[in-house]
Every structure is written in structure tokens, then in C-alpha cells.
Amino acid sequence: MPELPEVETVAKSIEKHLIAKSFKSIHVNWIKTLDNFSLSDFKHKVKGLSVARVYRRAKYIIIDFNEVLLAVHLRMTGKLYVVNSIKPDQKHISLFLKFDNKYLIFEDTRKFGRFYLFDNLDYLNNKLGIEPLSNNFSKEWILENIKSKNRQIKSLLLDQSFICGIGNIYADESLWFAKIHPLSISSAIPNNKLIKLQTSIVKVLSESIKRGGTTIRDYTYDFSYVGNYALNLKVFNRSGKKCLRCKSIILKIKVAQRGTHYCPNCQTNK
Ligand SMILES: [Zn+2]
């Protein structure tokens, strides 16, 4: 499942091709991809409009037509990319949009990816938590908001209505840097570790964006480009290997139904 850095990478990679291009047509092979709108809705609302901006909000890619927003959630296997021509026999294409001389392709082998049409960001803003790369995500914010909850820290970090964009990989990485055990109860974590957690989240996400995200499965973000943050992972997917800080063996447990990797020696509850 792509997380914040991967979604940011996709948004940036398609933006340069789509800015100021005008919408011409849409072709849908898998109708369930359209979540909260119909094909005729889309044609009616987007007809004649041009792309003003493309950006990320949480794990959504937002194609902003000024009057209306198209939000794309890639889910497990969705790939969104721009090409100059389309091969009609290409497998797994759920839908494509034509913009002047470009095609925006949505390819999705498992078909969980969804497109939403919104008039503005209100709906997403109401259900999504703080953006971890915004200025509001400060040390003060983390001390106040994590301390006031009695939740397992790993599940709290995965809760998109609390902080958005962090998934399994970056939650494990950030907790390793902050030396926090993934099962720690949020209210009991010492302040110095929470402050370290805030800087770790920002560092891990920003560094991954710089490297084009992590590719663990077959997820590629652009034709030729594969993110290489995987080379930088300190704890995720390293169970049975030595901790890079203390040489203890990294363990893997289940937290919130997700495989969770941690060092039993240097990540503690205290
Ligand atoms: Zn360790």
C-alpha cells in the first residue's frame, strides 16, 4: 500500500504533464473505480476544464480543475501515470482520461483503487488528520495530542483521522528512530521520546520523498523510475537481522493486524 512519500511522488510525476492541459474524454473499463459519481456526472462537470494543479492530500492524489476536484486513492496496486499514446490491448487498465495530447492512465491489477469527485476539500479535511509535513505538525502538537490519548502508539500512528499519510513502513521506521516500543501506550511515552518521534516522522517521510518512495512489492510510480528508499530502511522488513544500532535481533509481531518490526532491546516502553 503506497504511503505519503509514494503518493507525493506520483502526484509530482503526473503534475508536470497535466498542468494547463484540458480534459477531452474519459474511458472506463472498470466502472467500480468511480466511487461517488457516474460517468455522465463526470463528463458534465469536467467538460471544457483544464488542470490547475496536482497535489497530495493524505494518501489522495488531487487533480484540481478549480471548479471541481478529482481525488484518486491508489489503494493496494493502483498505478497512475501519463503517456503520449495508449495501447488499446494493455491489460489491467481500469480507466483512462485524455487531456489534449496526453493520456492519464489508471492501471490496477487488484481493482481496489477509487476515484472521487468533490467540489472542494471539505469532505477529506473533515475525515483526515493532521498532515505530518505541515507546519502545524509541531513538537507542541505531538505532546498535546499523543499524550492525551490512551492508545497503542503503532495503531495511533496508522489512524488516518489522527495523522494522515503514515502507513506500516514509516510507522515502524519512525518508532525505531525514536526508540519507542510499538505497543507502548501513547499517554505513558516520555516527552523526550515524543519530541524525537516528531522529528523522526518528518525526517523519514522527507528523506523517502527525496528518494522517490519505497518499493517493496511491484509498485512503480513512473515508467522508468522506482523509488529507492527501501535501501534506507532501518527496521521494516528486517526481522531476524541485527539492529543497526545495538546488534540485537529485530523481531516481528502483529499490531493492529499489521506486521510490525522492532528492536526488543533499544525500543522500550519507558
Ligand atoms: Zn536495537
CATH classification class of the largest domain: Alpha Beta
CATH H-level homologous superfamily name of the largest domain: MutM-like, N-terminal
What is the CA-atom radius of gyration, in angstroms? 20 Å
Strand fraction: 15-25%
Q: What is the number of domains?
A: 2
End-to-end Cα distance, whole Å, is 31 Å
Describe the structure.
The protein has two domains: 4-127, Alpha-Beta Barrel (N-terminal domain of MutM-like DNA repair proteins); 139-262, Helicase, Ruva Protein, domain 3. It is 28% helix and 21% strand. The chain is built from seven helices and ten strands. The protein has helices spanning 4-18, 39-46, 122-127, 139-147, 153-158, 168-178, 191-210; strands at 23-28, 53-57, 60-64, 69-73, 78-83, 93-99, 102-108, 114-118, 251-255, 258-262. A hairpin with a 4-residue loop joins strand 3 and strand 4 (69-73). Helix 1 runs parallel beside helix 7 and helix 6 crosses helix 7. The structure holds zinc ion. Residues 243, 245-246, 248, 263, 265-266 line the site of zinc ion.
